[in-house]
């Protein structure tokens, strides 16, 4: 999660100068975003990530020197607290599945309006997962991780209470914690279960505990 009082720090990576320049120009007009680096290949991207420690990386899949998937894999291996939004011209299932399997936080097609890319950057910066319909269909086919193996003990408690239909305030009162603590754990739960809201999380719980 980013601090909403500070601009979202973004690194852009795309080997097409027109796309890179266009994105940079667009984001410069957004008061809540700051482009800290714009690079044309994966090697330069990893250098920019190490130097600037951005909140979000907007990443093309096909780049010279080091491809987008390899960059995403390295970011995840290093356990960097960075959200990664894949921006690609490829809408085929293989490309989408690759991004999903490497734990991309979102994927946007270059054919979509620029406003959608800007909105997606904001969404992933604040912990949401953003995928087009084709990607969501692939996600739906993936086996859901079991909560007892993926979630911490506290997360399992909150997961069960969400499934009962409790609000954040009710959960906080039941567990004697703050609402902000509940929200923090919910973000982790959503990410681990690959869901975007409490309704989807509850559906996973009931499906796995039938």
Explain what this protein looks like in three dimensions:
With 210 residues, the protein is α/β, with parallel strands linked by helices. It has two domains: 8-140, 3-Layer(aba) Sandwich (Rossmann fold), CATH 3.40.50; 143-208, Orthogonal Bundle (Arc Repressor Mutant, subunit A), CATH 1.10.10.10. It has eleven helices and five strands. It has helices at residues 17-28, 42-52, 68-77, 93-101, 114-125, 133-141, 147-150, 153-163, 168-175, 179-193, 198-208; strands spanning 8-13, 33-39, 56-59, 83-88, 106-109. Strand 3 (56-59), helix 3 and strand 4 form a beta-alpha-beta unit. Helix 8 (153-163) packs across helix 10 (179-193) and helix 8 packs across helix 11 (198-208). The longest helix has 15 residues, at 179-193. The chain starts with 7 loop residues before the first strand and ends with a helix. The relative contact order is 0.10.
Write a short abstract of this structure.
This protein is an alpha/beta fold.
Please describe the structure with a list of short key phrases separated by commas or semicolons.
210 residues; alpha/beta; Rossmann fold; Arc Repressor Mutant, subunit A; 2 domains; 53% helix; 13% strand
**N-to-C SSE series?**
EHEHEHEHEHHHHHHH
From the spread of the alpha carbons, the general shape counts as: elongated
CATH H-level superfamily title of the largest domain: Response regulator
Query: How far is the first residue's CA from the last residue's CA?
Result: 33 Å
The residue ranges in which pLDDT falls below 50 over 5 or more consecutive positions are none
The CATH architecture of the largest domain can be given as 3-Layer(aba) Sandwich
Largest sheet properties:
5 strands, parallel
